[in-house]
């Protein structure tokens, strides 16, 4: 999902580019899409950025988090990454990702499972589609022809 930054004095936020996520964000911001600058017109981007900045400045970061949590608005607070605040970046209603409640997860290290993934996901064949060099680096076997 593509994001853009909106910065204000008391709450830094990120928002969505995709239409359905953008519509959900406008809904959370209580902005009517017919009454705001056209986001598809680059000449209106500065006015739109200022509108978002003013709107986000009207509430605290915590208030915005409470408004957007569980929505598909893809609005994410910009917070320093610390061990004291290790929370999910986004809380979507559905997402094709790993269930964070699973406790027995095998974490891969660099190179683990790469050949299996290439075979199962891309149906590549070793030596035909890719090679593994003497350092374990996987490279495409065929060179492009121009």
Write the layout of secondary structure elements.
Blueprint: E1 3-6, E2 13-16, H1 19-29, H2 45-57, H3 61-68, E3 76-77, H4 114-122, E4 130-132, E5 138-140
How is this structure best described in words?
The chain folds into 2 domains: 3-85, 2-Layer Sandwich (formyl-coa transferase, domain 3), CATH 3.30.1540; 106-146, no CATH class. By secondary structure, it is α+β, with helices and mostly antiparallel strands. Strands 1-2-3 form a 3-stranded antiparallel β-sheet. Strands 4-5 form a two-stranded antiparallel ribbon. The longest helix is centred in the middle third of the chain and has 13 residues, at 45-57. The chain has helices spanning 19-29, 45-57, 61-68, 114-122; strands spanning 3-6, 13-16, 76-77, 130-132, 138-140.
Elements, N to C (H/E): EEHHHEHEE
Please describe the biggest sheet, giving its number of strands, its sense, and whether it closes into a barrel.
3 strands, antiparallel
The tally of structural domains comes to 2
CATH superfamily of the largest domain: formyl-coa transferase, domain 3
Q: What CATH architecture label of the largest domain applies?
A: 2-Layer Sandwich
Mean pLDDT: 74
Strands, count: 5
């Amino acid at each position: 999902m593509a994001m853009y930054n909106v910065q204000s004095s008391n709450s830094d936020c990120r928002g969505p580019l995709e239409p359905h996520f953008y519509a959900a964000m406008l809904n959370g911001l209580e902005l009517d899409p017919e009454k705001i600058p056209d986001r598809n017109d680059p000449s209106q981007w500065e006015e739109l950025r200022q509108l978002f900045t003013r709107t986000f400045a009207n509430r605290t970061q915590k208030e915005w988090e409470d408004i957007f949590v569980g929505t598909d608005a893809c609005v994410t607070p910009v917070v320093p990454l610390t061990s004291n605040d290790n929370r999910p970046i986004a809380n979507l209603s559905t997402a094709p990702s790993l269930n964070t409640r699973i406790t027995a997860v095998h974490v891969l290290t660099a190179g683990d499972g790469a050949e299996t993934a290439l075979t199962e996901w891309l149906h590549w064949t070793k030596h035909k589609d890719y090679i593994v060099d003497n350092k374990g680096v996987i490279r495409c076997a065929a060179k492009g022809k121009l």
